[in-house]
Protein backbone atom coordinates (compact mmCIF):
# COMPACT_ATOMS: atom_id res chain seq x y z
CA UNK A 1 0.00 0.00 0.00
CA UNK A 2 1.37 3.40 -0.99
CA UNK A 3 1.42 6.27 1.48
CA UNK A 4 -1.40 7.92 -0.44
CA UNK A 5 -3.53 4.78 -0.18
CA UNK A 6 -2.69 4.62 3.52
CA UNK A 7 -4.04 8.12 4.13
CA UNK A 8 -7.13 7.47 2.00
CA UNK A 9 -7.75 4.23 3.87
CA UNK A 10 -7.77 6.28 7.06
CA UNK A 11 -10.26 8.68 5.49
CA UNK A 12 -12.48 5.72 4.64
CA UNK A 13 -12.31 4.54 8.24
CA UNK A 14 -13.45 7.97 9.35
CA UNK A 15 -16.27 7.97 6.79
CA UNK A 16 -17.54 4.67 8.18
CA UNK A 17 -18.15 6.36 11.53
CA UNK A 18 -21.16 8.01 9.89
CA UNK A 19 -22.57 4.68 8.69
CA UNK A 20 -25.71 4.97 10.81
CA UNK A 21 -26.21 8.72 11.01
CA UNK A 22 -25.57 10.67 7.77
CA UNK A 23 -28.66 9.57 5.82
CA UNK A 24 -29.73 10.81 3.28
CA UNK A 25 -26.23 12.22 2.77
CA UNK A 26 -23.27 10.00 1.87
CA UNK A 27 -20.70 8.85 4.43
CA UNK A 28 -17.56 10.88 3.86
CA UNK A 29 -14.19 11.12 5.63
CA UNK A 30 -11.32 13.57 5.27
CA UNK A 31 -7.66 13.59 6.35
CA UNK A 32 -5.28 16.57 6.23
CA UNK A 33 -1.59 15.65 5.81
CA UNK A 34 1.45 17.92 6.03
CA UNK A 35 5.09 16.88 5.92
CA UNK A 36 4.01 13.20 5.78
CA UNK A 37 2.08 13.52 9.03
CA UNK A 38 -1.65 13.61 9.70
CA UNK A 39 -2.42 17.00 11.22
CA UNK A 40 -6.23 16.85 11.24
CA UNK A 41 -9.16 14.56 10.57
CA UNK A 42 -12.88 14.92 10.10
CA UNK A 43 -15.97 13.07 8.94
CA UNK A 44 -19.58 13.89 8.13
CA UNK A 45 -21.66 12.99 11.17
CA UNK A 46 -25.24 13.98 10.35
CA UNK A 47 -27.20 15.62 7.53
CA UNK A 48 -27.40 19.38 7.98
CA UNK A 49 -24.15 19.48 9.96
CA UNK A 50 -20.61 20.12 8.75
CA UNK A 51 -19.25 18.00 5.91
CA UNK A 52 -16.07 15.98 6.37
CA UNK A 53 -13.90 18.70 4.84
CA UNK A 54 -15.44 21.38 7.05
CA UNK A 55 -14.65 19.42 10.21
CA UNK A 56 -11.13 18.47 9.07
CA UNK A 57 -10.21 22.03 8.06
CA UNK A 58 -11.58 23.39 11.34
CA UNK A 59 -9.40 20.91 13.21
CA UNK A 60 -6.36 21.76 11.07
CA UNK A 61 -6.50 25.54 11.40
CA UNK A 62 -3.42 27.20 9.89
CA UNK A 63 -1.82 23.81 9.29
CA UNK A 64 -4.10 23.30 6.28
CA UNK A 65 -2.12 25.83 4.23
CA UNK A 66 0.17 23.96 1.84
CA UNK A 67 -1.13 20.58 3.05
CA UNK A 68 -2.53 17.58 1.21
CA UNK A 69 -6.21 16.72 1.64
CA UNK A 70 -7.54 13.17 1.30
CA UNK A 71 -11.32 12.97 0.96
CA UNK A 72 -13.48 9.94 0.11
CA UNK A 73 -15.94 11.82 -2.13
CA UNK A 74 -15.45 14.73 -4.49
CA UNK A 75 -15.90 17.99 -2.55
CA UNK A 76 -19.26 19.61 -3.26
CA UNK A 77 -19.30 22.71 -5.48
CA UNK A 78 -22.84 23.95 -4.81
CA UNK A 79 -24.80 25.54 -1.99
CA UNK A 80 -27.02 23.02 -0.19
CA UNK A 81 -27.61 23.01 3.54
CA UNK A 82 -23.97 24.09 3.84
CA UNK A 83 -21.62 26.15 1.60
CA UNK A 84 -19.44 24.46 -1.08
CA UNK A 85 -16.57 22.43 0.35
CA UNK A 86 -14.49 23.03 -2.76
CA UNK A 87 -14.40 26.76 -1.96
CA UNK A 88 -13.48 25.96 1.64
CA UNK A 89 -10.43 23.97 0.51
CA UNK A 90 -9.40 26.75 -1.86
CA UNK A 91 -9.65 29.36 0.88
CA UNK A 92 -7.75 27.12 3.32
CA UNK A 93 -4.82 27.05 0.89
CA UNK A 94 -4.38 23.29 0.52
CA UNK A 95 -1.80 22.23 -2.06
CA UNK A 96 -3.20 18.92 -3.34
CA UNK A 97 -6.51 17.09 -3.02
CA UNK A 98 -6.74 13.30 -3.33
CA UNK A 99 -10.27 12.06 -4.05
CA UNK A 100 -11.47 8.47 -3.77
CA UNK A 101 -14.41 8.89 -6.17
CA UNK A 102 -16.25 11.57 -8.11
CA UNK A 103 -19.70 12.63 -6.99
CA UNK A 104 -22.09 10.15 -8.70
CA UNK A 105 -24.72 12.85 -9.20
CA UNK A 106 -24.48 13.55 -12.97
CA UNK A 107 -25.58 17.15 -12.39
CA UNK A 108 -22.57 17.96 -10.21
CA UNK A 109 -20.01 15.24 -10.97
CA UNK A 110 -16.63 16.76 -11.78
CA UNK A 111 -17.61 20.33 -10.91
CA UNK A 112 -15.89 20.19 -7.53
CA UNK A 113 -12.71 18.98 -9.21
CA UNK A 114 -12.90 21.77 -11.80
CA UNK A 115 -13.33 24.35 -9.04
CA UNK A 116 -10.19 23.11 -7.28
CA UNK A 117 -8.16 22.92 -10.46
CA UNK A 118 -9.20 26.40 -11.54
CA UNK A 119 -7.71 27.67 -8.27
CA UNK A 120 -4.38 25.99 -9.06
CA UNK A 121 -4.86 22.99 -6.73
CA UNK A 122 -3.57 19.67 -8.01
CA UNK A 123 -6.27 16.97 -7.95
CA UNK A 124 -5.69 13.21 -8.00
CA UNK A 125 -8.86 11.12 -8.16
CA UNK A 126 -9.90 7.44 -8.26
CA UNK A 127 -7.80 6.54 -5.21
CA UNK A 128 -9.44 3.49 -3.52
CA UNK A 129 -12.59 4.26 -5.50
CA UNK A 130 -14.04 0.75 -5.18
CA UNK A 131 -13.88 0.90 -1.38
CA UNK A 132 -15.49 4.34 -1.41
CA UNK A 133 -18.30 3.06 -3.61
CA UNK A 134 -18.94 0.13 -1.27
CA UNK A 135 -19.37 2.54 1.62
CA UNK A 136 -22.25 4.35 -0.09
CA UNK A 137 -24.08 1.85 -2.31
CA UNK A 138 -27.48 3.48 -1.85
CA UNK A 139 -26.40 7.07 -2.40
CA UNK A 140 -24.43 6.08 -5.50
CA UNK A 141 -27.27 4.06 -7.01
CA UNK A 142 -29.88 6.73 -6.28
CA UNK A 143 -27.76 9.46 -7.83
CA UNK A 144 -27.20 7.40 -10.98
CA UNK A 145 -30.60 5.76 -11.45
CA UNK A 146 -33.08 7.46 -9.15
CA UNK A 147 -33.65 4.14 -7.36
CA UNK A 148 -32.53 3.04 -3.89
CA UNK A 149 -30.22 0.13 -3.15
CA UNK A 150 -32.36 -2.81 -2.01
CA UNK A 151 -31.01 -5.31 0.51
CA UNK A 152 -33.22 -8.28 1.42
CA UNK A 153 -32.61 -9.85 4.83
CA UNK A 154 -33.86 -13.40 5.32
CA UNK A 155 -33.47 -15.80 8.23
CA UNK A 156 -33.72 -19.46 7.28
CA UNK A 157 -33.10 -22.95 8.55
CA UNK A 158 -30.40 -25.15 7.10
CA UNK A 159 -33.08 -26.74 4.89
CA UNK A 160 -34.10 -23.37 3.48
CA UNK A 161 -37.24 -22.60 5.49
CA UNK A 162 -38.25 -19.22 6.87
CA UNK A 163 -41.33 -20.07 8.96
CA UNK A 164 -43.41 -23.03 10.06
CA UNK A 165 -46.57 -23.77 8.09
CA UNK A 166 -48.51 -21.95 10.83
CA UNK A 167 -46.45 -18.81 10.17
CA UNK A 168 -44.43 -19.10 13.38
CA UNK A 169 -40.89 -17.82 12.83
CA UNK A 170 -39.53 -16.63 16.22
CA UNK A 171 -36.76 -17.34 16.56
CA UNK A 172 -34.96 -19.12 13.74
CA UNK A 173 -31.58 -17.52 14.42
CA UNK A 174 -29.70 -16.82 17.63
CA UNK A 175 -29.27 -13.58 19.55
CA UNK A 176 -25.95 -12.64 17.90
CA UNK A 177 -27.44 -12.91 14.41
CA UNK A 178 -30.43 -10.86 15.48
CA UNK A 179 -28.16 -8.12 16.83
CA UNK A 180 -26.26 -8.22 13.54
CA UNK A 181 -29.57 -7.51 11.82
CA UNK A 182 -29.89 -4.41 14.00
CA UNK A 183 -26.76 -3.04 12.31
CA UNK A 184 -28.36 -3.56 8.90
CA UNK A 185 -31.47 -1.74 10.08
CA UNK A 186 -29.44 1.10 11.54
CA UNK A 187 -27.67 1.81 8.24
CA UNK A 188 -30.89 1.63 6.21
CA UNK A 189 -33.03 4.56 5.15
CA UNK A 190 -36.17 2.45 5.16
CA UNK A 191 -37.51 -0.96 6.16
CA UNK A 192 -39.82 -2.51 3.56
CA UNK A 193 -42.34 -5.20 4.44
CA UNK A 194 -45.77 -6.47 3.49
CA UNK A 195 -49.07 -6.36 5.35
CA UNK A 196 -48.99 -10.16 5.68
CA UNK A 197 -45.83 -9.96 7.78
CA UNK A 198 -47.29 -7.11 9.87
CA UNK A 199 -50.47 -9.05 10.60
CA UNK A 200 -48.63 -12.32 11.33
CA UNK A 201 -45.71 -11.03 13.44
CA UNK A 202 -46.73 -7.51 14.59
CA UNK A 203 -43.11 -6.30 14.20
CA UNK A 204 -41.78 -2.96 15.45
CA UNK A 205 -38.97 -2.68 12.85
CA UNK A 206 -37.00 -0.40 15.18
CA UNK A 207 -33.26 -0.05 15.71
CA UNK A 208 -32.43 -1.42 19.15
CA UNK A 209 -28.63 -1.43 19.54
CA UNK A 210 -26.95 -3.55 22.17
CA UNK A 211 -23.26 -3.13 22.87
CA UNK A 212 -21.06 -0.26 21.76
CA UNK A 213 -21.43 -0.33 17.98
CA UNK A 214 -23.84 2.63 17.74
CA UNK A 215 -22.27 6.10 18.29
CA UNK A 216 -22.97 7.16 21.87
CA UNK A 217 -23.02 10.86 20.99
CA UNK A 218 -25.67 10.47 18.28
CA UNK A 219 -29.41 10.00 18.74
CA UNK A 220 -30.70 6.77 17.22
CA UNK A 221 -32.05 7.40 13.73
CA UNK A 222 -35.07 5.21 13.08
CA UNK A 223 -35.60 4.20 9.43
CA UNK A 224 -38.86 4.86 7.65
CA UNK A 225 -41.19 1.85 7.85
CA UNK A 226 -42.71 1.16 4.44
CA UNK A 227 -45.60 -1.31 4.42
CA UNK A 228 -46.99 -2.62 1.14
CA UNK A 229 -50.70 -3.38 1.16
CA UNK A 230 -53.02 -3.58 -1.82
CA UNK A 231 -56.21 -3.19 0.21
CA UNK A 232 -55.73 -3.59 3.98
CA UNK A 233 -55.18 -0.75 6.44
CA UNK A 234 -52.83 -1.00 9.41
CA UNK A 235 -54.45 -2.28 12.61
CA UNK A 236 -54.86 0.52 15.17
CA UNK A 237 -52.96 -1.49 17.79
CA UNK A 238 -49.99 -2.29 15.55
CA UNK A 239 -46.54 -2.09 17.12
CA UNK A 240 -45.53 0.10 14.19
CA UNK A 241 -47.81 2.82 15.55
CA UNK A 242 -46.47 2.55 19.10
CA UNK A 243 -42.78 2.92 18.29
CA UNK A 244 -40.58 5.79 17.17
CA UNK A 245 -40.15 6.35 13.45
CA UNK A 246 -42.40 7.33 10.56
CA UNK A 247 -44.68 4.85 8.80
CA UNK A 248 -45.57 4.91 5.10
CA UNK A 249 -48.44 2.71 3.90
CA UNK A 250 -48.22 1.89 0.20
CA UNK A 251 -51.43 0.84 -1.55
CA UNK A 252 -53.19 0.86 -4.90
CA UNK A 253 -56.31 2.65 -3.67
CA UNK A 254 -57.03 5.27 -1.03
CA UNK A 255 -57.45 3.75 2.43
CA UNK A 256 -58.87 5.24 5.63
CA UNK A 257 -56.32 7.55 7.25
CA UNK A 258 -54.60 6.63 10.49
CA UNK A 259 -52.94 9.17 12.72
CA UNK A 260 -49.17 9.04 12.35
CA UNK A 261 -49.25 7.13 9.05
CA UNK A 262 -48.55 8.60 5.62
CA UNK A 263 -50.17 6.97 2.60
CA UNK A 264 -48.61 6.57 -0.83
CA UNK A 265 -50.93 5.47 -3.62
CA UNK A 266 -49.19 3.83 -6.58
CA UNK A 267 -50.33 2.05 -9.69
CA UNK A 268 -51.54 -1.53 -9.70
CA UNK A 269 -49.71 -4.24 -11.59
CA UNK A 270 -51.07 -7.80 -11.80
CA UNK A 271 -53.40 -7.05 -8.89
CA UNK A 272 -50.60 -5.80 -6.63
CA UNK A 273 -48.57 -2.68 -5.95
CA UNK A 274 -46.31 -1.79 -8.88
CA UNK A 275 -42.94 -2.33 -7.22
CA UNK A 276 -40.98 -0.42 -9.87
CA UNK A 277 -43.12 2.65 -9.27
CA UNK A 278 -42.73 2.19 -5.52
CA UNK A 279 -38.93 2.18 -5.77
CA UNK A 280 -39.03 5.27 -7.99
CA UNK A 281 -41.13 7.06 -5.37
CA UNK A 282 -38.76 6.00 -2.58
CA UNK A 283 -35.89 7.40 -4.61
CA UNK A 284 -37.73 10.73 -4.84
CA UNK A 285 -38.02 10.66 -1.05
CA UNK A 286 -34.19 10.46 -0.86
CA UNK A 287 -34.23 6.88 0.37
CA UNK A 288 -30.74 5.49 -0.19
CA UNK A 289 -30.81 1.97 1.25
CA UNK A 290 -33.93 -0.16 1.62
CA UNK A 291 -33.85 -3.20 3.87
CA UNK A 292 -36.52 -5.76 3.05
CA UNK A 293 -37.89 -7.76 5.98
CA UNK A 294 -40.78 -9.58 4.39
CA UNK A 295 -42.32 -12.93 3.56
CA UNK A 296 -41.82 -15.12 0.53
CA UNK A 297 -44.43 -13.38 -1.64
CA UNK A 298 -42.94 -9.88 -1.49
CA UNK A 299 -39.39 -11.26 -1.56
CA UNK A 300 -40.25 -13.31 -4.61
CA UNK A 301 -41.92 -10.41 -6.39
CA UNK A 302 -38.94 -8.11 -5.77
CA UNK A 303 -36.48 -10.76 -6.92
CA UNK A 304 -38.50 -11.56 -10.03
CA UNK A 305 -38.70 -7.86 -10.87
CA UNK A 306 -34.91 -7.53 -10.62
CA UNK A 307 -35.20 -5.03 -7.78
CA UNK A 308 -33.05 -6.78 -5.17
CA UNK A 309 -29.41 -5.68 -5.23
CA UNK A 310 -28.19 -7.77 -2.32
CA UNK A 311 -29.31 -10.77 -0.29
CA UNK A 312 -28.26 -11.16 3.34
CA UNK A 313 -29.26 -14.64 4.47
CA UNK A 314 -28.82 -15.84 8.04
CA UNK A 315 -28.75 -19.62 8.06
CA UNK A 316 -29.45 -21.35 11.38
CA UNK A 317 -28.43 -24.93 12.26
CA UNK A 318 -32.06 -26.07 12.38
CA UNK A 319 -34.22 -28.33 10.25
CA UNK A 320 -37.84 -27.20 9.93
CA UNK A 321 -39.27 -29.72 7.48
CA UNK A 322 -40.82 -29.63 4.04
CA UNK A 323 -44.20 -28.29 5.15
CA UNK A 324 -42.59 -25.05 6.31
CA UNK A 325 -42.39 -21.90 4.20
CA UNK A 326 -39.61 -21.16 1.71
CA UNK A 327 -37.63 -18.01 0.94
CA UNK A 328 -39.16 -16.86 -2.34
CA UNK A 329 -42.60 -17.40 -3.85
CA UNK A 330 -41.73 -17.87 -7.53
CA UNK A 331 -44.31 -20.28 -8.99
CA UNK A 332 -43.44 -19.33 -12.59
CA UNK A 333 -40.04 -21.00 -12.31
CA UNK A 334 -40.60 -24.45 -13.76
CA UNK A 335 -37.32 -25.39 -15.47
CA UNK A 336 -33.64 -25.30 -14.51
CA UNK A 337 -33.05 -22.80 -17.30
CA UNK A 338 -35.24 -20.32 -15.42
CA UNK A 339 -33.11 -20.39 -12.28
CA UNK A 340 -31.93 -17.10 -10.82
CA UNK A 341 -28.18 -17.30 -10.25
CA UNK A 342 -26.53 -15.41 -7.41
CA UNK A 343 -22.91 -14.57 -6.69
CA UNK A 344 -21.85 -15.12 -3.09
CA UNK A 345 -19.70 -12.19 -1.97
CA UNK A 346 -19.22 -13.08 1.68
CA UNK A 347 -19.87 -15.91 4.11
CA UNK A 348 -19.06 -15.88 7.81
CA UNK A 349 -20.17 -17.24 11.15
CA UNK A 350 -22.28 -15.00 13.39
CA UNK A 351 -22.65 -16.79 16.70
CA UNK A 352 -24.03 -20.25 15.94
CA UNK A 353 -25.46 -19.12 12.59
CA UNK A 354 -23.98 -18.34 9.18
CA UNK A 355 -24.43 -15.05 7.34
CA UNK A 356 -24.36 -15.41 3.56
CA UNK A 357 -24.18 -12.24 1.47
CA UNK A 358 -24.95 -12.57 -2.23
CA UNK A 359 -25.88 -10.52 -5.27
CA UNK A 360 -28.53 -11.77 -7.72
CA UNK A 361 -27.17 -11.90 -11.25
CA UNK A 362 -28.97 -10.12 -14.05
CA UNK A 363 -31.32 -12.45 -15.87
CA UNK A 364 -30.89 -12.64 -19.58
N- to C-terminal separation? 39 Å
Query: Which residues form runs of ≥5 with pLDDT under 50?
Result: none
Global morphology = elongated
Output the structural class. alpha/beta
Proportion of residues in extended strands? 15-25%
Give the helix level as a range of percent: 25-40%
Pattern of helices and strands: HEEHEHEHEHHEHEHEEEEEHEHEEE
DSSP summary: helix tally = 10
Q: Mean pLDDT, nearest integer? A: 90
Detailed description of the structure:
- With 364 residues, this protein is of the alpha/beta class.
- The chain is built from 10 helices and 16 strands.
- α3 (85-92) packs parallel to α4.
- The chain starts with a helix and ends with a strand.
Set out the fold topology.
Layout: H1 3-16, E1 29-34, E2 37-43, H2 52-60, E3 68-71, H3 85-92, E4 96-99, H4 111-118, E5 122-124, H5 129-135, H6 137-145, E6 149-157, H7 175-187, E7 190-194, H8 195-201, E8 224-228, E9 247-251, E10 261-265, E11 268-269, E12 272-273, H9 275-284, E13 289-292, H10 296-304, E14 310-316, E15 342-350, E16 353-360
Parallel strand pairs: 3-4, 4-5, 6-13, 6-14, 7-8, 7-13, 8-9, 9-10
Antiparallel strand pairs: 1-2, 1-3, 11-12, 14-16, 15-16
Amino acid sequence: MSKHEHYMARALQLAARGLFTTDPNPRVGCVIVKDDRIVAEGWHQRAGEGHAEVNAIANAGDKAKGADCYVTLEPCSHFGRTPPCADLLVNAGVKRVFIAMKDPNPLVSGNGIKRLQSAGIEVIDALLSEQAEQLNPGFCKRMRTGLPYVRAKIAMSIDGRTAMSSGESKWITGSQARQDVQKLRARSSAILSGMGTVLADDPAFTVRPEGDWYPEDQAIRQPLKVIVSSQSALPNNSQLLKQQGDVLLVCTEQLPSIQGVSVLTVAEKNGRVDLHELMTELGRLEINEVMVEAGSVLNGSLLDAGLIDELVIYMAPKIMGDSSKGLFHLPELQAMSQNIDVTITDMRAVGNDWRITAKPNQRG
